[in-house]
Amino acid sequence: MLHLCALAIPFGLAVGVFICLASANNRPLLDGDLAALDRTLGFDWLAFLELTNRSPTASAVLVAAYHSIGLQMIVVAVVHASMHRLDRLLEYYLVSAVCLTIVGVVVAMVPAAGAYAFFKPSTATFSNFTAHAGMWHHETLLKLRSGEPFALLLSEAQPLVTFPSFHTSLGVLIAYSMRYFRVVFWPVVLLEITMIVSTMPEGGHHLVDLIAGAAVAGVSVFVVRSVAYRTGMGIQGTNLPQRPISMGGS
After folding, report:
1. Taking the model in full, what pTM does it have?
2. Is residue 7, in this structure, part of any structural domain at all?
């Protein structure tokens, strides 16, 4: 875990700053185009929001699933580390790092504010979700796009990624990383599906954000597996000899 943190924390901070810089551009927001793509797919975002808001229980489950992502990421890393599987831990870190890098680049190319900012639904429409659902980042995004001096405070940092959905990417990658554990794999898949669905009513994502997020996760897995196979890295699933690796042994 110490090894992972030594890699992940500096990288995460660097990418976080990069995403802020990527968001600080004057390119027109593309939410109208994203919403149009949703309609082309036959998806009505406002109708879906109203549907999921009808049941307080269903809404509470979606809210809990959405905000569990940080804990999920920690649990997956702890599980692999506690089993002394450096190969699985390394794979988990690498696919996440590649994914986050791709997401940062796409954010600069496809600026968007999110479905809540675009549709401006009434408060009654999402009364069973959090008060600022899908809009936590909006004030920060507008400040960045204004070109005014901006102080980045980690204690007040908000996720700025709209397209693609990084929650969706992580959901796919977490399920992928847990594929070794047959007993819990399908419950994990169910949790990730619930979380991915929640990214629309609670996270404020368009449907196409989710599709793009899943595609980015797939590309990240492909890149890491391809590099691992060609370089002989000891990562699970690359047809290379595998064995448990002790974090502290020789």
Report:
1. 0.84
2. no
